[in-house]
Amino acid sequence: MEKEQNNPQQLQIELTPEVAGGTYANLAIINHSHQEFVVDFIAALPGLPKARVSNRMILTPESAKRLLFALQDNVMKFEQQFGTIDLGGVPVSKSEGIGRTATPFGLGEGDA
């Protein structure tokens, strides 16, 4: 019994062929309430006036924070291996992510 408590069972994760192909997104819109974060992933094509949400992820606040840390860690590792990610002169909004989030497509604050 003691051995089972010290060795929690490993989570088995299945990746179906449909999910393995992935979905392209170049824009994410994030909203939140007290109970959850909702992340809508969008493929917005230049020159087209309309875009569709391709995926929606709903996370608990705790899971959202874990995702934030995992993304920060992986971006740092990526940049150490391949160099700084160039945002192509996209302005950084002071109101977004304490100056860490790029404004998509160079839109000014409040234009999206």
Task: Note down, in words, how this protein is organized.
This protein is an alpha+beta fold. The protein has one domain. The protein contains three helices and three strands, in the order ααβββα. It has helices at residues 2-6, 17-20, 61-82, and strands at 27-32, 37-42, 53-59. A three-stranded antiparallel beta sheet has the order 1-2-3. The radius of gyration is 18 Å and the shape is extended. The N and C termini lie far apart (56 Å). Residues 102-112 have low confidence and may be disordered.
Q: What attributes does this structure have?
A:
17% strand, alpha+beta
How do the helices and strands line up, and which of them pair or pack?
Elements: H1 2-6, H2 17-20, E1 27-32, E2 37-42, E3 53-59, H3 61-82
Antiparallel strand pairs: 1-2, 2-3
